[in-house]
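Revision sheet: C-alpha cells.
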Amino acid sequence: MPAYWLEATVVILGLILLLIEAFGKSTSRELVRRISIGGLAFTLVPLYFAVAPSAENAELARFYIYDQWAAFFKLLAIVATILVLLMAYDYRKVLNQFTEEPGTEHGTGEFYALPVFACAGMMWMASARDLVSIFVSLELVTITFYILVAYMRRQVGSLEAGVKYLILGALSTGFLVYGIAWIYGVTQSTNLAEIGVAISDPESALAANPSPLFFGLSLMLLSLAFKIGAVPMHLWIPDVYQGAPTPITAFLSVGSKAAGFIVALRVLEPFFNSEITRNQTTLIVLVMAGLTLLVGNLAAIAQTNFKRLLAYSSIAHAGFLLLAVAAWHPADSGSLSSHQVVSLYLATYLVITIGAFFVLVVVRDSENSDEISAFDGLGQRNPSLAVCATVLLSALAGLPLTAGFIGKFFAFQLAISSAAANQILWLGVGIGFIGVAASFYYYLKVIRAIYWREPANTEEIPVPRISRVVILTLTALTILFGFWPNPILWVIGG
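Predicted:
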C-alpha cells in the first residue's frame, strides 16, 4: 500500500469519530474512545507494509517522501497518540468537571477525536520534503492543539494557556511563511532537494553572498523552535504545560516535539551538506542548543509545580537534541548519524516522559494538585508507584543504566567526535554537562519529596487499571533500554 494512504486512513478515522460524537447518543463517548485507540493501533499494521509512492507519480514525489526516517517518525506519532488517548481515559474525571454539563461526559468526544487529526499532521510532517507541504502539515498540527490546549474552557488556566499558545503559534507561523518566501526568493524553489543543489554550487551568486539565505533559514528555525520548545520561542511552554489538560501536555512534550525535529532535520540537511553553508548553520544551531540547555535546566531548579518542572525539562531535552543536530554527522558504517541519534533520543524520551505524565495523572486524581508537594510521602502511600516514579525521574535526569542515559550518551558522543573538526562544538559539550548536573538536582528534589517528606494524607493512592499497566510497562522499558537499546537501534538502522 502506498504510504500516503496511512495519513488518509487516520484522517478518515478522525472524521468518523467526529460523526459519532455529533450524532451518537450520550453513551457513545466510550465508543469514541475505543475506536480512536483501536483504529490507531490497527494503522500500525499497514505501516509495516507501506511503500513509497510509485515513480510515475512524480508530482506527489516532489512533496512526499517515504524513507526509513519517515516510517520511524510515523511510528512514534502513532504510539504517542495511542498512549495519550489511554492517559485521557483515566483523566476523564478531571475533564468532566469542565464540560458543558459538569459531572457528565457531554461534549468530550472531540477530546479523543482531535488528537487523531494531530497524529495525521505529524505523520505528514515526517514525509514532507517541500516547504509548502511542511507548512500545511505543521498548521494542521498547530490548529488542532489550539483547541486541545484550551479544552477545559471553564478553567482560567486552560483559557490562558490557549490564548498564549494561539498568539505565539500565529507569530511562529508568520516567521515560517516569511522564511519560506525568503528562501524561495533566493533559490527559486521550495523543494528541499532542489534547494540543496542551489546552495551547493560554488559558482552561484549565493556562494558569494549567502546572507539572504541565512536570513530565511533563521526565520524558519525561529518557527521550528516554537514546535520543539527551543530558545527563543520557548516562552509559551511553562504556562501552556501547566494550564493545558495533562494528556495534551504530554502530547505536546513528545509528539509535537518529535514531529518538529524530523522537519528540522529535513530542512537543515541541505545546509549541513553544503560546504558553503555548513559552518554558519552549525553556529546558528549550536547557539540555539546552548541557550536552550541553559534556560531549560537553570529555570527548572526553582519550580514547585510538577508540570512546570516537566515543561522546563522539555526545553532542556530540546537543547540536548539540538546539540546532536549541530554536531551534524551523515550516516556511515562507523558510527551513528545525527538522524539516528535524534531518533534514538526521541524514542527513549517518549517512553520516559509519557510514563512520568501517567504518574502525574494518578497523583493529580488523588490529591487534586499538580504541585511537587502532592508527591509528599508517596513512598508510604503507594510504594510500587513511588518506585516507578523514581525510575522514570532518574531516567529523565540521565542516570546510567536507564534509557535516559543512552540518549544523552550518544548525543554527547556525537558532539565530542565532531568537535575534532569543529572546535566550537566543545562549548556545546561543556554547557551540556552543566545541564546534566543541574537536572540531577531538580529531579532529585521530587524524589526527596516522595521518600523523605511526610504526607498530609496517609490514605493509599489508588492506581486505575489502565494507568497501572502502562506505568509498569513504560518503567520496565526504561530499564530494559538502559541495558539493551538494540531494539531501537534495529528500527533506526543503527
